[in-house]
Amino acid sequence: MNHWLMKSEPDTFGIDHLAKKPKQTAGWDGVRNFQARNFLREMRVGDLAFFYHSSCDVVGIAGIVKVVREAYPDRTAFDPKDDHYDADSKPDQPRWYMVDVQLVRKFDHVIALDELRKHASGKLKDMVVLKRGNRLSITPVTKSEWQFIESLAGK
DNA sequence: GCCAACGTTGGC
DNA sequence: GCCAACGTTGGC
Measured in angstroms, what separates residue A32's CA from nucleotide B2's C1'? Predict the structure, then answer.
């Protein structure tokens, strides 16, 4: 099983939106970056991911989700009216993919980016999301990073 | 294949 | 709103 970190802007879609969905499950669509897409396609049912809030008051990890459906074509790319429309993605040859995720747990407090950075030269020294200039919306997380961050969240 | 221009991301 | 960093595009 692999671990991931998935970014979203909570003003658009945050962990509380996911919590209110039927079965607390939603499609993670709108990824329009090739590297992030490739990671999406590596995800397997049962993989766990941190739900990261970006571009907001409290930037950081808000909770945990799990993959419940593996990559399938992102329909929003086919819809000219959608913000994420991409004329180069055709239904018979889709360029973009999405997965479905289900809420596992919302942390009682967001683990702030500041807090994560405190460990940027220690336990989290290789964490992708802490690297300078990182903009990837989907990044892999190692097992040790995962366990350490979970311990920061408390049980 | 290079690289400048451009658009986007995302922390602050 | 600013701006650094980055990915993508397109002319050559």
Answer: 25
